[in-house]
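Handoff note, outgoing to incoming analyst
You'll be picking up this chain. Sequence as last confirmed:
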Amino acid sequence: MTTSTTTTSLAVSGLGFAYPDGHRALHGVDLRIGRGERVALLGPNGAGKTTLVLHLNGILTAGTGSVAVGGLPVVKDNLREIRRRVGIVFQDPDDQLFMPTVGEDVAFGPANFGVTGDALRVRVRTALDRVGMAEHADRSPLHLSGGQRRRVALATVLACEPEILVLDEPSSNLDPTARRELAEVLLDLDVTMLMVTHDLPYALQLCPRSVVLDDGEVVADGPTRELLADPEMLARHRLELPFGFSLT
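Most recent structure output, in case you need it:
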């Protein structure tokens, strides 16, 4: 997929990376995501998905090739702005929520980037409104359900107004109602989205495009429905639809 520079949220070119023990996790990965796209990143355990994500906000920077977010290269001098532009929502919301109240958790990120006063209050209120959690601003995150904590964790990232929203297994450990509620929130967001998931039906529901990564290489990139309709490709890369699930 080709996208012009002015409309590209993420540009990864020739990205390679090896860990200190010699394990090569990425082999010349090329990936471009247009502004406003919703893309699922699929692949088996050990495929290199986490390593790729860690390059997007500069946690890892020692690889070959290049990464740019909204045209800004992911290099040491740009890391503060890159980490505002790339918002990662972790698989476990308890890794992201640590303040006494929901409102304080959501305020923490933008405050760290210098937003104060009325502007900060507007950021918090807007982010909580977007995930349907505004009425819980004064509650402790510890007293929320798992699905509610997942949405608050999402709000903490949205409050920083990121260029790209990266979701790590967003549907994991959610009951069917919480899963549906989160999907409704995500579908309503006007932000570029990269969703790392093993949940193929969720990928189909939320992401028109999917990229399959295996053994550190992009092995497929195309419309999600077409990729999931290819049983040989799924089997070859250890991906599996739930028993009885139909694409029709």
